Amino acid sequence: MPSSALAVLAGSLPQLALSTDPGDLEHYGRDWTRRWTPAPLAIARPADIGEVQAIVRWALAERVALVPSGGRTGLSGGAVAAHGELVVSFERMNRVLDFDPADRTLTVQPGLPLERLQQAAAGHGLLYPVDFAARGSCTIGGNIATNAGGIRVIRYGNTREWIAGVKVVTGTGELLDLNRGLIKNSSGYDLRHLMIGSEGTLGLVVEARVRLTDPPPASSVMLLALPAMDALMQVFDVCRRRLALGAFEFFTDRALHHVLAHGAQRPFEETAPFYVVAEFDAADEAQQAAALAVFEQCLEHGWVTDGAISQSAAQAAALWRLREGITESLAAHRPYKNDIAVRIGAIPAFMHQMQAIFAREYPAFDVVWFGHIGDGNLHINVLKPADLADAAFIEQCEHVTRLLSETLQACGGSISAEHGIGLVKKKYLAGTRSPAEIEVMRGIKRVLDPAGLLNPGKVFDTP
């Protein structure tokens, strides 16, 4: 791209923050994946919707691809700019614009970090319930782009359930105001939901109206040690029947090993192969007694070997750290990640098949897995041996991912539960979506982004 093209952009938008600093190019040109060398043309940081529209129209005229950028906490390469694209960072569009007490909604800009959104809701005595460990750095625009889930999907669902309306700029520079906060709206296709989870390939999210809800009652956290994988579903079943669950998470002994090495405190004297973290309503003595009864029932049946129930907010946070600290504790190892989903009823059979694949294909690798049993989402992190070259490691991991994809296809699962397809999982999309579905998706993209400039190469290749 000749520098004259950037000069045209800078001249047409004199207030636009535009950078070609090498440090900025590297920083904004990648997400948490490290498999591609960032090589963007420049970084644009618009301050309002008008600047975003002007950037898109410039890109059309100059035939420059655009990569939207939020907190760049993604794990599938969805925010990678490796081929001379202009990165459109929304970090300056980070404000809360409006609170509507009657509708109980907040209108926000896309660059607002999730944690600040949660704090804004709390300031009005309400809750924005979608939550995960990256809350301090991920943004609501990125959450919408990937339909992010997190740790409380079992009660509140994914991001999709909480978006009352969204404004997007399409690949032609048009501004679409989708749904406008309505609860009931049967006037044709709901294009709002089309945009949610589209990974910036159909439009750039420039504003969102999010729904809020009442804060949950007082809760407690229970940590359980399990002697075997088969006990997971037994424990989940009894917890779901007898407790008002807000979250139900599991992790393995290898996950605990890394979190402890990262500074967490050991919960029990003896190590177990599996652990469960369950958060449940505990606003009165009856709910607290129910949790103790659940623990005793599980202990009696041999489904658990040890357990702890939080008695304070500090203890609850310490127990949650054992689960939420896993990703950070593994970051230095540059793990290869899988993020997969199956129906809850298919979890036992799938986990046995998955464990057999790992034992056969990863005999010398440290495989750390954990996930959201309550919504059928499993996270797999494979750590690279120090003496293995990066290319050989990726090749071996992708061989196993193909096997996982085939197993998922057989049981009707998905290769991406909540991280998106991006670049990393593109070759496995056909295991989750039929050829007819993929062609429909391509057709939708051709309408909304006829020049193919919005996050090209992500999700699928366009002919």
Q: How would you characterize the overall build of this protein?
A:
With 463 residues, the chain is of the alpha+beta class. It has 4 domains: 3-91, Uridine Diphospho-n-acetylenolpyruvylglucosamine Reductase, domain 2 (2-Layer Sandwich), CATH 3.30.43.10; 96-211, Uridine Diphospho-n-acetylenolpyruvylglucosamine Reductase, domain 3 (2-Layer Sandwich); 219-327, Alpha-Beta Plaits (2-Layer Sandwich), CATH 3.30.70; 334-418, Alpha-Beta Plaits (2-Layer Sandwich). Helix content is 35%, strand content 20%. The chain has helices spanning 3-12, 22-28, 49-62, 114-123, 140-146, 153-156, 191-195, 231-242, 253-261, 285-300, 313-324, 326-330, 347-361, 390-410, 435-448, and strands at 17-19, 42-45, 66-69, 86-89, 96-100, 105-108, 163-170, 175-178, 203-211, 219-226, 245-252, 274-281, 306-309, 336-341, 366-372, 377-383. A 7-stranded antiparallel β-sheet has the order 13-10-12-11-15-16-14, sandwiched between helices.
The value of Rg in angstroms is 23 Å
The name CATH uses for the topology of the largest domain is: Uridine Diphospho-n-acetylenolpyruvylglucosamine Reductase, domain 3
Low-pLDDT runs: none
Oligomeric state? single chain
Q: What is the end-to-end distance?
A: 23 Å
Instruction: Return the CATH architecture of the largest domain.
Output: 2-Layer Sandwich
Number of domains: 4
Mean pLDDT: 94
Proportion of residues in helical segments: 25-40%
Kindly state the number of beta strands: 16
- How are the strands of the biggest sheet laid out side by side? 13-10-12-11-15-16-14
Top-tier CATH class of the largest domain: Alpha Beta
The major pleated sheet works out as:
7 strands, antiparallel
Shape: globular
Number of discrete helical segments: 15
Relative strand content: 15-25%
Structural class: alpha+beta
